[in-house]
Amino acid sequence: MNFIFVIVGFLLLIFGGNWLLKSAVSLSLRLKIPKIVIGMTVVSFATSAPELIVSVQSAIDGFPDLALSNVIGSNIANLGLVLGITLLIAKIDVKKSFYTIDWPMMSAASLVLFFFVYDDLSITRGEGVILFLLLIIFLVFLLKFQKQAVVDEMPEDDEILPDYQTLLFFLIGAVSLWGGSEVLILGATKLALEFGVSERLIGITIISVGTSIPELAASVIAILKKEKAISIGNLIGSNMFNIMAVLGITAMVTPVSVMDSKLVSVDLYWMLGISFLILPMVFLPKKMRLDQKEGLILLVVYTIFIYQTIT
Prior knowledge:
Blueprint lengths: L1 H30 L3 H13 L1 H12 L4 H25 L2 E2 L2 H23 L3 E2 L1 H21 L17 H32 L4 H12 L2 H12 L3 H26 L2 E2 L4 H22 L5 E2 L1 H19 L1
Antiparallel strand pairs: 1-4, 2-3
């Protein structure tokens, strides 16, 4: 039964990612908004739903520390694991907006989080409000100043769907991604317990990676569909949503307290490090391109992170 859960979870993620992508492409064409903006907003919000649900629920249940560890682990997984796997499948030609807007905003959000938790090891309700307001400002900026002609990478496959169908694909895709990740985590966790793997190891690997599976599914499907702008935009946007929306909303529900100091003294530095590592990769060795070599480097870095975490 647990193995069936894993299979069903993967199938829901595959179909959900495809439906969500159809909705995002249609929306970008209808509104004449660049696909990377849609990737950083609509798709990112949908694929960040598992992190939001897990974090808010843990805060309500009296375990706010889980919210921070979930976000930090997911952000590291998004760039190390998800982007690494995506690049092994296909190279990505990076647009100028990546280093002028997208990456600086992601890095700024990461630094704001660092300064919020570094001194008092907590995120207060006021700081949660600030994080959420920063997200609103960022979204307004994107929609106002980035609304330009859509760059078609595969115009023959792009299709403007009817409004009801666009909304239906988005809702079904988002629910499928969320449900798929939940079913997959449940099945994989029980399988791991059956084979005698410790609960700590399950939490570090399956849960943090599990909540990043929607990003992986959406990004891989976007790559296969040649929608590479949505793929990288989804990952950058998801990391910002995790910090500003997930932690912002969670902190507004209840202050997020750091119970394990290693989250700040070790894991947070890993999150910052892998975020800053992406920028030089865009310029070296090939300018404005990420390919299989960079993907392999990211996967090695992520493997080292997991190894030092569990040892």
